[in-house]
Design brief:
The protein is built from 15 helices and no strands. By secondary structure, the chain is mainly α.
């Protein structure tokens, strides 16, 4: 929220340097096991420098540099949206999602405008405003009605997945499945695997959402069947891999297969320990395991609970992306 002077950047940071720093921050957020700790060190100075650059170029005479800086700002605010939501600051998540949309509109960049609407949809999902999320996603999809390039297909598909999730949150299971199959899947096939706008959209992500729908519907057997056809090794985002394993653990939890739940929670800890500590669903499954687990597994459960600090810190909202 501060507007102090840039901490170490030149008076007019070159757009290429800012772009490189924001992309590096995104890579850290999507791939680091300790992404919360590392991002907390990176983001404050980066935010200050980008804001300083936006103000500097707004008053300047270089329209190319101004537009590129606004694009970079939109990308940074997309990252901040995810970071703020995952750290429990939904209020700030909404604020930065709005800033991302404004920056994308000022840059007149249609793909980034759609990406900002994708971000806004996820904030609304985190606020349990599923109807609003669906409206935002539908509006964004309408703005890319006839995608031509793989990137346009990918962004159009990403916003469709927001609408799919909104249907599932309202327990409209068949609407969610139908929209996934008829609208998101064709765009995934046209786009291929990728990470346009840091959305990780592609056929694998569509499969992950199919699993999530069945998990939320309580259809554990069908969810596990969906999981069997997914190969997450191609995903560039650790967060999406984490969500996949978490949904599988929940499917086993629904079936009261405690050994399988524990195995997958241990895998999740190895993959992303900071995410496990912040996931309400993982924490709830561990709490339930503690109450009902057989003596054979009790020690492993207690040790895991102690490692993630289950009794000390509250969890934060679960939600893909």
């Amino acid at each position: 929220m501060g507007y102090r002077a840039a901490s170490h950047a030149p008076a007019f940071p070159p757009p290429a340097i800012l772009r490189e720093r924001v992309e590096a921050a995104w890579r850290t957020w999507q791939t680091s096991q300790n992404r919360f700790t590392e991002s907390a060190r990176i983001l404050p100075d980066l935010l200050t420098d980008v804001e300083h650059a936006v103000r500097s170029y707004r008053a300047g005479t270089d329209p190319v540099a101004r537009r590129e800086t606004l694009r970079t700002a939109a990308d940074l605010y997309g990252l901040l949206r995810s970071y703020c939501r995952r750290t429990g600051r939904i209020d700030l998540s909404l604020l930065v999602a709005d800033r991302a949309l404004r920056a994308a509109e000022d840059a007149d960049d249609p793909l980034r405008i759609a990406g900002a609407q994708w971000n806004l949809g996820h904030v609304l999902l985190a606020q349990n405003e599923s109807e609003g999320a669906e409206q935002v996603a539908t509006l964004a999809a309408e703005q890319i009605q006839t995608p031509k390039t793989p990137d346009e297909h990918a962004m159009a598909g990403a916003v469709e997945l927001v609408a799919v999730t909104a249907h599932a949150r309202r327990r409209n299971w068949w609407a969610a499945r139908t929209r996934l199959e008829r609208k998101a899947l064709p765009k995934a096939k046209a786009a291929g695997e990728g990470n346009v706008g840091w959305t990780v959209f592609g056929p694998t992500n569509v499969d992950l959402h199919a699993l999530s729908i069945e998990m939320l519907a309580g259809e554990a057997v069908e969810g596990l069947r969906c999981a069997d056809r997914v190969d997450i090794s191609c995903l560039p985002s650790l967060e999406r891999q984490f969500t996949f394993l978490l949904d599988i653990a929940r499917c086993y939890d629904l079936r009261r297969e405690d050994a399988a739940v524990l195995v997958h929670l241990l895998d999740l800890e190895q993959l992303a320990p900071e995410d496990v500590a912040r996931s309400p669903l993982a924490r709830q499954m561990l709490t339930d395991l503690r109450r009902r687990v057989r003596p054979t597994y009790r020690r492993q459960v207690e040790v895991l609970i102690d490692r993630i600090g289950l009794d000390e810190a509250p969890g934060l909202p679960d939600n893909p992306a």
